[in-house]
Amino acid sequence: MTTIDIDALLDAPESRVIVCCGSGGVGKTTTAAALALRAAERGRQTVVLTIDPARRLAQALGLRELGNHPKQVKVEGFEPKGELWAMMLDMRRTFDDMVRVHAGPERAEQLLQNPFYQTISTSFSGTQEYMAMEKLGQLAASGDWDLIIVDTPPSRSALDFLDAPTRLSSALDGRMIRLLTGPAKAGGWGLRKVVNAGFSMFAKAVSTIIGGQLLTDASAFMQAFDSMFGGFRERARKTAELLRSSGTSFLVVAAPEPDALREASYFVERLSSESMPLAGLIANRTHPVLAKLSGSEARTAADSLQGAPLAEAVLRLHADRVDLAAREERLLARFTRAHPEVALARVPALAGDVHDLEGLRAIGVKLAG
């Protein structure tokens, strides 16, 4: 089993982007922040992009809040050789910024004020995943940072993240949506033109489902969106190229639990099939044994104690810990047998949640082994 050399990955000048991916609830956001802090401590100009809206991350970084643009983190208690910046993805604002860049002032204003756009910019399937990658593209294009670390959305499936640019682009270019452009493209005759053109059944059905006004809004949206659709596709293409470039590395984060490791296996297989560079698996919140005493020996000793309740409780707690560690080792061994080529790093669980930079720094030390 190969161990991930985290410091070598962070230090390499050719490392430009590190993407942390995995299912929800495995500590992915905290891992990304800890990696970013360690990279800055070791001399990189680093920015971490997170999608986690929890204020605890901002507090751990010493910030009152995180916004949609990078904010420098003031590190106290130790002096990093580089700089640490952080931001939290605002899906709607990122979509708005993309519209302003690609549509031009007049068209952009039409799109931003359109009720149909205001709906899809926050609720369309794949929007969050795509906007995370859109923001990554913006950060990379700026050239302001040596290293960008991305905390990806907690997708239930690897497909949600890796296919987001294609899926969102296809959805907005789909047959149903394109039919909605008929009224606007036909010279502004609106729904009456569609009806007269022989689409009465379609128009009636859509009007019944989403309402006549929303149908009109959708038509106007697609007419304005046409002007920027080429730019939208081009951004998706560049994002895909960036993810496959030699300067990008993927780290799959998982807890030593069956469901999380099954999800991790799917990520590993999908990254391999897409020829995306996988640096390895981070097994987060493991429970290594802290003493050589076996579980059975600890229980036997606990059973023999008389009048020492505290010692007995400690021994039984140790026995339970041995059992948990053995279970986690079996699960990780099963994963490595299925994916022998994947390097592994273990991060022991901390006693509590991370609340400050020192906590993130401690995780960084554990990541580096």
From TrEMBL:
One of its GO terms (molecular function) is ATP binding. It comes from the Bacteria. This is Arsenical pump-driving ATPase. Keywords: Hydrolase. The keyword Isomerase does not apply. Transmembrane segments: none annotated. Gene3D superfamilies: P-loop containing nucleotide triphosphate hydrolases (3.40.50.300). Coiled coil: none annotated. It comes from Amycolatopsis camponoti. CDD domains: ArsA. Its EC number is 3.6.3.16. Residues 16-287 form the ArsA/GET3 Anion-transporting ATPase-like domain. PANTHER family: ANION TRANSPORTER ATPASE-RELATED (PTHR10803:SF26), ARSENICAL PUMP-DRIVING ATPASE ARSENITE-TRANSLOCATING ATPASE (PTHR10803).
